[in-house]
Amino acid sequence: MISGAEIVIRCLQEEKVDCVFGYPGGSVLHIYDALFKQEQVKHILVRHEQAAVHAADAYSRSSQKVGVALVTSGPGVTNTVTGIATAYMDSIPMVVLCGQVPTAYIGQDAFQECDTVGITRPCVKHNFLVKDVKDLAVTIKKAFHIAATGRPGPVVVDIPKDITAQMCDFEYPKSIQMRSYNPVVKGHLGQIKKAVQMLQEAKRPIIYTGGGVILSDASDKLAQLARKLDFPVTNTLMGLGGYPATDRQFVGMLGMHGTFEANNAMHYADVILAVGARFDDRVIGNPEHFGGEKRRVIHIDIDPSSISKRVKVDVPIVGNVADVLDEMLKLMDGGFKTDPEVADWWKQIDEWRGRKSLAYRQSEHIMPQFVVEKLYEVTGGDAFVTSDVGQHQMFAAQYYKFDKPRRWINSGGLGTMGVGLPYGMGVLMANPDAQVACITGEGSIQMCIQEMSTCKQYGLPVKIINLNNGMLGMVRQWQEMFYSKRYSQSYVTSLPDFVKLAEAYGHVGMKIERPEDVEPALRKAFTEHKDDLVFMDFIIDPAANVFPMVAAGKGLTEMILAEEL
Amino acid sequence: MRHIISILIENESGALSRVAGLFSARGYNIESLTVAPTEDPSLSRMTILTWGSDDVLEQITKQLNKLVDVVKVVDLSEAPHVERELMLIKVRATGKDREEMKRMADIFRGRIIDVTETAYVIELTGASSKLDSFIAALDAGLILETVRTGVCGVGRGDRILKV
Ligand SMILES: Cc1ncc(C[n+]2csc(CCOP(=O)(O)OP(=O)(O)O)c2C)c(N)n1
Ligand SMILES: [Mg+2]
User: Fold this and answer.
1) For position A565, what pLDDT does the model report?
2) Is A392 in the pocket of ligand 1 (CB under 6 A)?
3) Which residues of A75-98 are buried (b: 16+ CB within 10 A; e: fewer)?
4) How far separated are the first and last CA of chain A, in Å rounded?
5) Distance of alpha carbon A116 from its chain centroid, rounded?
6) Is the dihedral of CA A455, A461, A467, A469 positive or negative?
């Protein structure tokens, strides 16, 4: 027999978890003691529980593994909520192990008690309170199973302290059967046939893909399919890297800050093949202004509730994206031909491309777009790029051309400022030799800046690209455009000296103020300081705005372009 | 449109709050909700009376199915079914109203299940509309208390909701 705490650790070992991100406290002391007595599972001590969850989340996004966080009860748990909700919105598989007050104290407002299951319920795929040590191993098994299968998501396991002290035989179940949980994998063959037929008939087709392609590791299949069809491809913010951005067929990201060609192609398409994407408001704008009467939609998604939620779908296909694409490819082996009129559609798209909607004016200041372009060059397009939320995030998405999946790590659904640095940590734990850049703003970076200390402790050489405009830039942009320039609380004064701050944490700091210094500074950071965390404070043009832009509530074709201003 | 959703769900603590939380988080209506264990005590059966357009109902059933604890979901009102609701209503029964209340209960096939010097408790079972009519037929001033179980229902004939 072993203790509940040892069972927790043995379960993690069985799941081949090589590292957990966490922060100790009273209710998890037994677990931390069990952790101490072994070496297989490494522990990364963060400086705030929110960062533990973000790091576990990015660990998962940048690998194919389930990220794990471990926190104490009460405030430990409440600090994780932002991280859990962030992962939930982007369907990231993750297990969060939480301490809880001893079983007999639950409900008595005990010290550091909170209703973990209640607080996290709306932002988890599922959660459990373990009430008996005999259920502990099977519950953890279920948690990993649920997190990683179907539409993935975070799962919380709440473990009272007394349970971690009790003794029990340990047996880790090899597999799990749950009568209430049987996610589909294979798509309906009849529907897939219909879809293939519809693709042959399409004259103005578009392949529109999202995070589902990345989550199901289907980018190779998607590329095969797209080549075969020779149709244009657009990605959502979450889908970037799912299709190579440097490919001729790629028309760029679509949506609120999508390219002119992507948004027009999406709007005027007669057949949309939606793959692991969910037509959300930042992507299609107002559904009432979206597309024409005769447009037909094929939608592949593992989550039936994502289908026909915002846009009526003609051919729903519920299944794992990779499996469904595989079936489609098989069906297209014999006698499949696309419509010759697609050539005219390509002409139209090339005309839209001619508008060069991502062109931007240089100024005497550093332009943020320029920094991202240089970063792309210096890293050979091969870096993992994490970002925070704001204008810098959109510049990163628009100007860093992701050719591979799992390289672009950002909070798309919840839009959580503060994720960038802990995301960098998670990426590095999963990919120790990778180049990792965190593109951030002076607003966002300060939301989890304490993690520079964690990076020091574990030698995590994140390159922080601070696009410092001295503004909550995205807020300022909306105020400029929609609130007659009343800049209410969007100006950040009393910024710290980021160079000194980085140095105070034991890292390298650089301040870059002139356009000609951008590239040399980046080169220096990625070569000479390859193994250091470098905080690069780029003082950028504070007036730079993100274009194209579809204002909230408008249709995709109602774009504001840079040159129109 | 009015719909009756029947749910088989693992009889775990917190199952009810998952369902109720889903409805409030997504802005769906709950007119009534009843829940109790089935003949298999590991399963509970929930009946929810809701309303919404076809699109909303499609989302409700899909979202319910997504809950990990939910085993099965059907929209009973999509096909022939029977439904019942139970009401206990306490009314003032003094003077001439005492006889009148007895008469009304008989007309609606209610049963008087508790009698005191001043009040009756009448039990009435039936479609919700029948319970509504009964309330409407009484002098509002004489109604002391009403308690209703909410609708429960079952598909007719071979339509069976079971694991
Ligand atoms: C936690 C959180 N709070 C508030 C917001 C709203 N918000 C979105 S972008 C933004 C400004 C971000 O400023 P900064 O990090 O400097 O980036 P910039 O837009 O200037 O590039 C704010 C406040 C958010 N997304 N997340
Ligand atoms: Mg800023």
Assistant:
1) 52
2) yes
3) ebbbbbbbbbbbbbbbbbbbbbbb
4) 72
5) 24
6) positive
**How wide is the angle at C-alpha B138 spanned by C-alphas B132 and B142, nearest 5°?**
120
Pair A296, A271: CB distance under 8 Å: yes
**DSSP 3-state helix, strand, coil percentages of chain A (rounded to 5)?**
40, 15, 40
Q: Is pLDDT of A241 > 70? A: yes
A437: nearest Cα among A374, A498, A390, A500: A374
Structure tokens at B93: 């029964």
A335 pLDDT band, cuts 50/70/90, is confident
**Please, which residues bridge with residue B119 across strands?**
B92
Q: Is the CB of A280 inside a 6 Å radius of any atom of ligand 1?
A: no
Where does residue A16 fall: left (phi above 0), alpha (psi -120 to 50 degrees), or beta otherwise?
left
Give phi and psi for B35, each to the nearest 5. -150, 140
Which ligand 1 atom lies nearest to the CA of residue A467? 21
Average pLDDT, chain A: 97
The mean per-residue pLDDT over the stretch B118-139 comes to 97
The interface predicted TM-score (ipTM) is 0.94
Contact indicator for A300, A323 with CB cutoff of 8 Å:
no
pLDDT at A415 over 80: yes
pLDDT at A334: 81
Mean pLDDT over A526-532 rounds to 98
The string of DSSP letters for B72-106 reads EEEEGGGS-EEEEEEEEEEEE--THHHHHHHHHHH
In this complex, the residue of B21, B55, B71 whose CB is nearest that of residue A121 is B21
Q: Nearest Cα to B26, choosing from B53, B59, B48, B3? A: B59
**pTM, entire model:** 0.97
Mean pLDDT of chain B: 96
Q: Which amino acid is at B53?
A: S
Three-state secondary structure string covering A527-553: CCCCCCCEEEEEEECCCCCCCCEECCC
Q: Is B157 left (phi over 0), alpha (psi -120 to 50) or beta?
A: left
Q: How far apart are CA A467 and CA A498, in angstroms?
A: 12
* Mean pLDDT confidence for A395-423: 98
Please state whether the peptide bond connecting residue A152 to the residue before it is cis, i.e. omega within 30 degrees of 0: no
Phi, psi of A93 (to 5 degrees): -70, 125
Instruction: Give the residue from chain A lying closest to B17, CA to CA.
Output: A118
* 8 Å CB contact between A284 and A255: yes
Residue to mutate, A389, A423, A438, ligand 1, most ligand atoms under 8 Å from C-beta: A389
**Type of residue numbered A87:** A
CA distance A498 to A495: 8
DSSP secondary structure, B101-157, as one string: HHHHHHHTT-EEEEE-SSEEEEEEEE-HHHHHHHHHHS-GGGEEEEEE---EEEE-T
